[in-house]
Design brief:
Structural class: alpha/beta
Number of helices: 9
Strand order of the largest sheet: 3-2-1-4-5-6-7
Helix content: 40-55%
Number of strands: 7
Shape: globular
Strand content: 5-15%
């Protein structure tokens, strides 16, 4: 019997892509979602990663993805909700549109996928089954410039508590909450220096620390309903 795959939403770039590649290195079959075609997808497909286009910006797109996921696999070892949008706050009608979009991507999609894919996890035939929500340091701190983003990530952390209670003991549900893991393509050294100064450990560690955190949750059979901060001691500043 072949191993059940691990689903990573938003797995075509940055943290999601790194985790997908590392899981492949460790011998796990992987399914990722992506929003638009990009060169990195061909490299992932060449490694055997199954790629499913998905638009979580509306309910129809979320439900369409769930149908195609069920057509693709009959079981899942884990679901990693990594799909995310980094939208700043706006004014007027755009503010409401942005908030609704972030709610659907960060909360509604995980909520519906967790509900609809529960049986895929429970029938995987393995003793460990996991749901991991990727949130953000600002979920508990708030953000002056990204109010809607922070609120929707906080909502996702709350979903962790509810689903952990609802799905115990057969499925473990946890959160990873990162802060400044890797730089963007256009970030200069001045920005990097400012970013490093925000954490007690004074470094921008790269995506490996997120995979180590994910691996810990996937391998541990006695952790559920928790948030694992990966922020370099930023709260100490």
């Amino acid at each position: 019997m072949s191993a059940a795959p691990i689903l990573i939403t938003g797995g075509a770039q940055r943290l999601g892509r790194h985790c997908a590649e590392r899981l492949c290195d460790d011998g796990h079959p992987v399914i990722i979602t992506y929003r638009r075609e990009r060169p990195a997808l061909e490299a992932l497909r060449a490694r055997g990663v199954v790629t499913l286009q998905a638009d979580f910006g509306d309910q129809a797109g979320i439900r369409d993805f769930i149908v195609r996921l069920r057509e693709t696999t009959s079981s899942l070892r884990a679901i990693v909700h990594n799909a995310s949008d980094w939208l700043p706050d706006a004014e007027g009608d755009e503010a409401a549109d942005n908030f609704e979009h972030l709610f659907r991507v960060h909360m509604l999609a995980p909520y519906l996928i967790n509900l609809e894919a529960r049986d895929l996890l429970e029938t995987c035939g393995e003793p460990l089954r996991d749901i991991v929500h990727m949130t953000d340091y600002v979920a508990t701190r708030g953000s002056r410039k990204h109010v809607a983003y922070a609120a929707s990530k906080a909502g996702l952390e709350n979903l962790t508590l509810s689903f952990a209670a609802r799905y115990a003991p057969s499925i473990q549900v946890n959160t990873i909450a990162p802060a400044m893991i890797m730089l963007g393509e256009n970030d200069d050294e001045a920005y990097a220096e400012k970013a490093r100064a925000k954490s007690a450990l004074g470094t921008i560690p790269g995506p490996g620390v997120i995979y180590e955190s994910l691996r810990y949750l996937l391998d541990n059979r006695y952790v559920t309903g928790t948030t694992l901060p990966v922020d370099g001691g930023r709260h100490l500043r």
